[in-house]
Amino acid sequence: MKKTGIDLVTDIQNPSPDYYCTWQTQLFATSDGKPENQRRAICERSLFDTQFPYGWAYFYEQARRDLFLVMDDSWDVPLSNDGAYFGSLLLDEQKFPTFTKNTDNPLSPLVSKLKGLGWKGLGLWVCAQESPLYSVDKSEEEYWVERFCKMKEAGVSYWKVDWGAKALSVEFRKMLTSLAKTHAPNLIVEHSLIKEIIPFTHTFRTYDVPSIMSIPMTLEKLVSFTLQDDQQMKYDNIINCEDEAYIAAAGGYAMGIMRHPYAQNLPDGREDMSFPNFHRKIKTKMYEIIRAARWHRIAPAFSGGSFSVSETVLSDSWKFIRPEIEIEDWWFNVSMVKDFITDGVLTKSAPAIIARNTQLPKVSYDKSGNICYCIASQNPNGVYSVATLGRTSNQEYFLPKCDVEIYTKNADTIGIFGEYSSLTAVTDATFDKVFMQDLADDESFDVTEHIIRQDNRIIISGDLISQIGRLAQPDGDTSEPGVLLKLIKK
Q1: pLDDT tens per residue across span 145-164
Q2: 392 near 317, Cβ under 8 Å?
């Protein structure tokens, strides 16, 4: 292979509404899976004190320009966890003493601080209700207009509207989106929980899934929350698939990253039950975030388009042995987990293949009779993306290396994520050379002599994808490959 001296990754800020969210880092810092302590953990010390387990604002150095930093649950609630403050949207003085010295708009210096560190902007968790302490003698609309104006003044970029007394009210959520368009037009308002709000929102989050079943449950949710084609085409909304970075990259979705680089056990020495290290090793897959964020510069998250799924459905399983270190215990009270456990085994299913704006890829079973999940999309700008995704059986995570065939039309730029035995691209594009680059790197390789051309087919070996797709990541990072393939016409 020969270096080209060319960086194929566009040097612009990722336009997708992607973010890193602090919620699971709040859990880690407290060695506790209980919301009460997690809520106390969000404060300026956690963000800016570099002593372990803090310093969260210094995470993702190579991806910060492409991500918002979202402060999660209770940044506006005092250490007492007094529920009367939920929905106040006023930076708490106990937690942020340095920034609340600016009594006019304390969020403003916080936004400046984070942007100074390279983040795309500040996002905020929002409780779906008014605080009774600050809503006296104000109408619902007056209350929220006041807050939107403050957000615009401070330059806040994102709201993650979550649970609260009005969480299931479509009218309330519609009102927030409408008021934001008028009073803070640069503020992105994310909604969740109720499918009916999707046509009226900027972004819609698929919501929480446990790490041990994240892939099939996220795919399952994407199917559930996708509107019918004739409806989907009418609306300008983007689905956020949370921490599944390669699903976001290949599927044209936004991502809300929950993982963080503290890959060791909890500070008290116990296994991190939110990201078990003996399963998928999510917290040692940091370079997947870099690659997905950079790919979104080229193929941004998009709304609408056709949506299709395979008839083949795959089932993954997890056998509980020591639940206290495998999953947060509150999941056993949630129907999408508890209703799918039989004899101590959690089983979840999802379509084997999902495609947006393109034909379903063809995926062959590997030599052991296993098949991966696969997702692909053709971006409205013409760029093509594909990812293979791993499986879970009992407590083993594995990614079958399958032969995959995709149909890329005239795309001269293809994002490829995951592991393959081979990848065949059926293309209408004309080209003379083929370049390939690790999406986390800054230089491409001429791989023309390492691919096979058969009429309108390009055949790429899985070994080549794996070799180049991991070049930039350091030892100890277990990220799956992610490459940009470019067809070059003289």
Answers
A1: 999 999 999 999 999 999 99
A2: yes
Domain boundaries in the chain? 2-298, 307-488
Tokens 């003379």 belong to 432
pTM, two decimals, is 0.97
197 neighbors 174 (Cβ within 8 angstroms): yes
pLDDT at 237: 87
Mean pLDDT of 389-402: 97
pLDDT of residue 228 exceeding 60:
no
Instruction: With beta carbons less than 8 A apart as the criterion, state whether 168 and 154 touch.
Output: no
Structure tokens at 414: 């293809």
**Which residues, other chains included, contact 431 with Cβ-Cβ below 8 Å and sequence gap of 6+?**
412, 487, 488, 489
Using CA atoms, how far apart are residues 106 and 114, in angstroms rounded to an integer? 13
Q: What is the pLDDT of residue 233?
A: 46
Task: With beta carbons less than 8 A apart as the criterion, state whether 25 and 262 touch.
Answer: yes
Q: Cα(247)–Cα(461) distance, rounded to whole angstroms?
A: 22
Sign of the dihedral defined by the CA atoms of residues 259, 260, 261, 264, in that order: negative
d(CA 438, CA 465): 9
Contact 91, 106 (CB under 8 A): yes
Judge contact between 74 and 60, C-beta under 8 A: no
Task: Give the separation between CA 292 and CA 315, rounded to whole angstroms.
Answer: 26
Burial of residue 193 (number of CB atoms within 10 Å: 0-12, 13-18, 19+): middle
- For the stretch 113-132, pLDDT in tens is 999 999 999 999 999 999 99
Cα–Cα distance measured from residue 312 to residue 310, given in angstroms and rounded to the nearest whole number? 5
Backbone phi and psi for residue 392, each to the nearest 5 degrees, phi listed first: -130, 130
Top CATH class of 2-298 equals alpha beta
Amino acid in position 22 = T
